[in-house]
Amino acid sequence: MLGFLPSLISISADDLATTTAYIGEIFADVSVFVWLAIGVPLAFFVIKKVIGLVRGNLR
């Protein structure tokens, strides 16, 4: 039943390389947003902790 499948779908090495490069570009572009999504909440957490430590030492 799957004997006809290779004749319907043909993928060359160039197609595979192009697709892999495109996927790599997508991950490179998205990585900025991932780092922002991790970094912004972490920065607020650290700032909150530092403010808490400073307030604790002043009293």
Give a description of the structure.
This protein has 59 residues and is mainly alpha-helical. The chain contains two helices and no strands. The protein is rod-shaped. It starts with a helix and ends with a helix. Keywords: Membrane, Transmembrane, Transmembrane helix.
Number of helices: 2
- Topology as a string of helices (H) and strands (E): HH
Q: Could you name the ranges where pLDDT drops below 50 across 5 or more consecutive residues?
A: none
Seen as an oligomer or otherwise, the chain set is: single chain
pLDDT averaged residue by residue: 85
Main beta sheet: strand number and arrangement?
none
Helix share of residues? over 70%
Q: What percentage of the residues does DSSP assign to strands (E)?
A: under 5%
What integer value in Å does the Rg equal? 25 Å
Keywords: Membrane, Transmembrane, Transmembrane helix
Secondary-structure blueprint:
Layout: H1 5-8, H2 13-58
Transmembrane segments: 23-47
Keywords: Membrane, Transmembrane, Transmembrane helix
List keywords for this structure.
transmembrane helix, transmembrane, 85% helix, 59 residues, membrane, 0% strand
Summarize the structure.
It is built from 2 helices and no strands. The protein is an all-alpha fold and 59 residues long.
